[in-house]
């Protein structure tokens, strides 16, 4: 027997305008006004910027001012570079590149919503009929489940961390959500058209982050067809067709790159080597990372998803259980087979976990929901209050201890009041208290009541951080200041700079400092940007060099940059 009894009053859907406003409140903070931060965010922007201001060879060979970046794939960088081409002239290159991030985010949330909606309106997913009627209509039930899945998706802490970056990970997550949606449509109606659309999504995933994730997704699809009794004579040809379409989607990059060999490089061979390095025998280290990081990465999805697996354990042949559960299981196997898993592997679990969690909400007891709500209210309100306190302290110096704790992390930073950001932060805080008042006073019976406070609180914390503390975070995590310092001492006749700097540092010095890194570093460059660390053994460049400048980010005491001019032996 199905474990769900639900009255029609519990399936009140959120207004469409409210969902759209919530999505914009989620994605716009952290996109507007944010500089490329160190590590992957800056490195990915560097590839986009190089493509947008380079030649056709840069579009075939992802690189940062001549530094080869064969990992992942070119699709996200193409999108960012195209946005820089179209909008960089009046938005600036950084904000223009982040338009691609906004588009990718919208693709992901729409795909997740429609995947859950189609699962929720199916006959086998409907709650039991009540004795005197009053059960919800299938479409209303599906909409409410989709709203709940979207709220859980937006509340996941791991996605919040990565969803605002210019990296390939947000696009991989969005395309997995799209693949989930197309898989649901295929299981409902196995046909060549749906198989081809699955292949299109898999091909785009391949161009985004290699062929390993699509390969595991194909395995998940095959397992789903076995559980859902799709005839093998139909499923196997369709899956082969999906594989063929996916391969065809990658050809517009693979074939020209193999033929042209941009800058004399072989990016496809390096890309394939990177893909192969992601596969190994399962070991203990990935399991430790999954358990250690997953507790916070998948919150608040994982408790509800686990409950869904338990509550629906007797209905293990239903579409709304088989598809998300299979995708979660296969993604975990892929994670365990990675010798050094990254958060990209964890992100692949977020969309199916959000769908599972939405179905888990159906059977959660009221007492558990109230406990989660009070936990969310207390913890998130306390976090918001602490952010306001530290913001006030850094401006006024009172209370002295919080002010000291903030400013000692960023020596040299001068706090200023951005009145527009202050108004946005105050409005978000007021909205949070109105949301809590509505939840406590009305005690709504709607299905998504269990996650609205968790998701709303996470969005509040993000808005406060990206308004009140955005200048401080840019100062702390960006290489803009040190790059401009190096540019100020650059000789006027400089035409070539060689460097050992990492991807994020090279991208930042090329963009902010306009250092003319050579496309293929060689010994003829007269200037050298040398990155090393002050702790441990001193590292000096080989050869004869004269020091022109030395600097570092104020928040990073061990990392150091030095600019040298070549001298005669």
TrEMBL record:
GO molecular-function term, one example from the UniProt record: transferase activity
All copies of domain Glycosyltransferase RgtA/B/C/D-like, residue ranges: 141-253
Keyword Transmembrane helix: yes
Membrane-spanning ranges: 6-28, 98-120, 191-208, 214-232, 239-259, 294-311, 318-337, 343-362, 374-393, 417-438, 450-472
Superkingdom classification of source: Bacteria
Keyword match Transmembrane: yes
Keyword list, A-Z: Membrane, Transferase, Transmembrane, Transmembrane helix
Name used for this protein in its record: Glycosyltransferase
